[in-house]
């Protein structure tokens, strides 16, 4: 008899551990277009866990076996996409999803403290950024209706407000981290913001404000590694050594550097890299006799393909590769595994500029540093 009771108790424990209770979303949806969609995505792998057409009414849907963790509630209405973060677990989520009020967080009642933290994060965000949101909306509307005569001016104004929005986003995360130092949501938010390369010092400051337990978590350690990697490529830092050889077997040496040097991280099989090469060839002709050098660093593995593209694209500046592909120390140390990627260095190998340096700004950045302007 005791044996049967033990089996029943064990089964009861197993069943309770595998509680099939779903995550249920009860939303009032309004002011969306006829083909608008709401979806729930896992932040871990961007897997879509649920997708529903928005009905503009009282709308209910559920995820039968929710995978606990940070998630994204996403709306797609024509060309407009909006994302809201929350913590997915079993239980009831209620709120209002308004297509005309996308800056207001839609979830009002949630089943876990992690999602309650997000409600507070968005409350902080709105209180700190409302005027900015309004100004950006006006600037983007004016860009939408711009004429040929003023479109460049309107685009520049909109870009300035977008950059102010980005700075405000980081300030929002900083305020949240100060209020919730024990929350791992800050790690999630910094990862989603994705500007460790360009806001390295601010990232490190926010990270160091968190409790030690959060810093020592698996995701905390991973983010810190990314921050420190970006930190060594900040302007004023000494660039890491370039590993590998030229096609004719010469190792990299600082003596090849000139006053201003454009380091180009690329791969021969990339269509984007090939298109960039067309622009870079002309740019090199402009600067090659003006104390400027280009340095190509390839993340390729196949030497024949690498050499073939160098010849076909007429890349006459020094080229280096250790032919280790993504396992190359160059990929980790120089560009954090990004290709294509650009940065500038001086004749001593000191980084001059690398923060989100795109091909559009390479010319002006070279010119600026060549003239000695900071």
From TrEMBL:
GO terms for biological process: cytochrome complex assembly. The keyword Signal applies. Gene3D superfamilies: Glutaredoxin. Residues 233-371 form the Thioredoxin domain. GO terms for cellular component: cell envelope. The keyword tRNA processing does not apply. Pfam families: AhpC-TSA. Residues 1-17 form the signal peptide. Its main location: other. It is found in: Cell envelope. InterPro entries: AhpC/TSA, Thioredoxin-like_sf, Thioredoxin_domain, Thioredoxin_ResA/DsbE_sf. Keywords: Cytochrome c-type biogenesis, Disulfide bond, Redox-active center, Signal. PANTHER family: THIOL:DISULFIDE INTERCHANGE PROTEIN DSBE. This is Thioredoxin domain-containing protein.
């Amino acid at each position: 008899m005791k044996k049967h009771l033990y089996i029943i108790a064990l089964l009861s424990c197993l069943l309770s551990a595998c509680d099939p209770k779903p995550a249920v979303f009860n939303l009032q949806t309004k002011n969306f277009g006829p083909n608008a969609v709401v979806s729930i995505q896992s932040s871990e792998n961007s897997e879509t866990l649920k997708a529903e057409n928005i009905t503009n009414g009282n709308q209910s849907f559920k995820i039968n076996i929710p995978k606990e963790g940070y998630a994204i509630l996403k709306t797609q209405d024509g060309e407009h996409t909006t994302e809201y973060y929350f913590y997915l677990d079993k239980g009831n989520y209620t709120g209002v999803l308004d297509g005309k009020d996308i800056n207001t967080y839609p979830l009002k009642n949630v089943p876990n403290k992690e999602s309650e933290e997000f409600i507070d994060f968005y409350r902080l965000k709105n209180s700190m950024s409302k005027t900015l949101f309004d100004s950006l909306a006006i600037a983007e509307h004016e860009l939408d209706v711009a004429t040929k005569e003023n479109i460049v001016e309107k685009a520049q104004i909109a870009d300035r407000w977008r950059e102010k929005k980005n700075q405000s986003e980081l300030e929002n995360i900083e305020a949240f981290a100060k209020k919730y130092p024990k929350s791992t949501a800050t790690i999630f938010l910094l990862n989603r913001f994705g500007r460790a390369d360009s806001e390295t010092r601010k990232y490190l400051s926010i990270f160091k404000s968190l409790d030690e337990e959060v810093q020592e978590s698996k995701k905390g350690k991973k983010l810190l590694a990314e921050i420190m990697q970006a930190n060594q490529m900040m302007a004023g830092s000494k660039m890491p050594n370039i590993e590998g050889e030229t096609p004719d077997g010469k190792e990299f040496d600082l003596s090849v550097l000139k006053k201003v040097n454009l380091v180009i991280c690329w791969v021969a099989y990339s269509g984007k890299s090939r298109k960039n090469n067309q622009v870079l060839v002309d740019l090199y002709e402009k600067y090659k006799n003006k104390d400027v050098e280009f340095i190509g660093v390839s993340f390729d593995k196949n030497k024949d393909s690498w050499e073939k593209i160098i010849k076909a694209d007429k890349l006459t500046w020094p080229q280096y590769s250790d032919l280790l592909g993504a396992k190359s120390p160059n990929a980790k140390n120089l560009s954090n595994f990004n290709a294509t990627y650009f940065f500038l260095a001086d004749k001593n190998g000191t980084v001059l500029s690398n923060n989100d340096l795109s091909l559009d700004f390479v010319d002006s950045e070279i010119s600026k540093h060549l003239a000695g302007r900071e």
